[in-house]
Amino acid sequence: MRDLSRASGMSLAGLYYYFESKERLLFLIQKHTFTTVVRRLKERLDGVSDPEQQVRIFILNHLEYFLANPAAMKVLSHEAEALKNGFASEVAAIKRQYYRICVGLLDELKGERGLQFSTRIAVLSLFGMMNWIYTWHNPRVDADAEHIAREMGDLFLRGVMSGSRGRNGR
Fold it and tell me: What is the largest CA-CA distance in the chain?
């Protein structure tokens, strides 16, 4: 809180007036981030019926938000286990909702294309690709979110759609 006080120019007492603890502040950051990402995703998916396009929208939505808000991504990545009690369960519920949306999109793709792959492994692999972007993305030399999402989508979708017909998977 002292570091935040110095960085923001707000007094430590002022910070504690608005946020009774570091945990409460962390909770608000995580809740805001996840609810914003989920809300934007639902808006973008509205009216889109093609499963491949839906997966691409999911990727773009995720990358756009986190490239525009790298500090939030760092907080989410490094402080994921810091929340306790009711704070943790509320954020976990939003995260589960986001995860389930992605599972649903990939299950739709599998059904439409007759693909067989582990949805869980595919979803976790996709999140692995997307979530670490904050560690390497340099806006001075790397492409914007739309370009990266297109390339990442191509890599991911080619992987799940090639050679997966007729194999066992969930």
Answer: 62
CA gap 105, 55 in Å, rounded: 6
Which tens digit of pLDDT belongs to each residue from 135-163? Answer: 899 999 999 999 999 999 999 999 999 85
Q: What is the pLDDT of residues 49-73, one digit of tens each?
A: 999 999 999 999 999 999 998 888 8
Domains and CATH numbers, the chain: 21-161 (1.10.357.10)
Residue 117 class from Cβ within 10 Å (0-12 exposed, 13-18 middle, 19+ buried)?
buried
Answer positive or negative: Cα dihedral of 19, 24, 27, 31: negative
pTM of the model: 0.85
Q: For the chain, what percentages of helix, strand and coil (3-state, to nearest 5) are there?
A: 75, 0, 25
In whole angstroms, what is the distance from residue 95 CA to residue 99 CA?
Answer: 6
